[in-house]
Write a structure and sequence with these properties.
Length: 311
């Protein structure tokens, strides 16, 4: 179920209208995409975070808060259909990518943030929409954490030739060939969900300025903050963070106005309308592959939210 509801995160939970215009009072709920908007004084860069299959905005909020504090950046994390309080049925490649592009347009058209000051950060399934954006636009940088070559290529790791029967989605290797932005790619060699060879091949397919980080002991859901060498130091070094701008960030107040159709559920109930459905849980193979981590709350040292709170 969802880990937050529409009354959580006051002043941070944004409702982005698909029209990108101030919403009408009778606008249907489906016309909005919930997102987490965290601002940092005098920050030059915006990080657009596209979360993993295991997360919703509630679960990734602590990590996003650490991103803001550690790198002194603004952060926008967008929700996927069917996750958290985002309206819609189970997410698909198309609807996830659509929400990601809407978030980018919100940054550039509503907040007037330049593309060359936006960093796109995707983790696991979030690497798909991150690459879709970077294949079309040149941004300040692209950061991929534990990416996969494509849906079918990932299936091939577990079911061999039967993967040819699986509908292809997220053609990340093909998209990577069109990326012109600087690339930071982090993929642990102990990843048993997405083999690190996927990250290596994506890195090899990229022709722009790039850096590959492959920690020996890092698993698919390892907390990126447990060792600075995994993520924090590469970010600081590769993108020369933090950096500052003295142009004011103006966020329209209507962005934070909760939609009237989204209500708090009684104690013990689940927030409506979303339910944190798993994007990759559409075939039997992924029900097995991701049952222990990406589609469920990571536990122990795999929980970024727990470690981020501790940090």
């Amino acid at each position: 179920g969802a880990t937050y509801d529409a009354e959580d995160f006051a002043g941070e939970l944004a409702w982005i209208p698909r029209s990108l215009e101030p919403p009408k009072a009778d606008a249907p709920l489906e016309d909005f995409v919930p997102s987490l908007l965290l601002t940092s004084p005098s920050a030059r860069f915006f990080v657009l975070y596209l979360h993993s299959n295991a997360e919703d905005l509630g679960r990734c909020r602590s990590f996003c808060t650490v991103l803001r504090t550690q790198f002194q950046v603004h952060v926008l994390a967008v929700e996927y259909p069917g996750y958290g309080v985002c309206p819609g049925d189970q997410a698909s490649e198309g609807t996830v990518v659509e929400n990601a592009f809407l978030a980018l347009r919100f940054l550039t058209e509503v907040l007037r943030w330049p593309l060359d000051e936006i960093l796109i950060l995707g983790r696991s399934i979030g690497c798909g929409p991150a690459l879709a954006i970077a294949a079309r636009y040149q941004v300040c940088g692209l950061i991929l954490i534990c990416p996969f070559l494509s849906f079918r290529a990932l299936c091939r790791e577990f079911i061999g030739g039967l993967s040819e029967l699986v509908q292809e989605r997220f053609p990340n290797e093909e998209l990577m060939k069109r990326v012109t932005s600087p690339l930071l790619l982090v993929h642990g060699k102990a990843d048993t969900v997405v083999p690190w060879s996927h990250g290596r091949r994506l890195y090899d397919a990229c022709s722009s300025r790039k850096r590959l980080v492959t920690p020996e002991l890092m698993q698919h859901n390892t907390n990126l903050l447990t060792d600075p060498a995994f993520f924090v130091l590469p970010m600081l070094q590769f993108f020369t963070l933090p950096d500052y701008s003295f142009d004011d960030l103006t966020v329209p107040p209507w962005v934070f106005e909760r939609h009237p159709l989204v209500k708090r559920e009684p104690s013990g109930g689940q927030p409506t309308p979303g339910s944190s459905s798993c994007l990759l849980q559409t075939t039997d193979v992924f029900r097995g592959i991701e049952a222990s981590s990406p589609c469920q709350a990571p536990s122990g040292d795999g929980s970024e939210a727990e470690a981020a709170e501790a940090a």
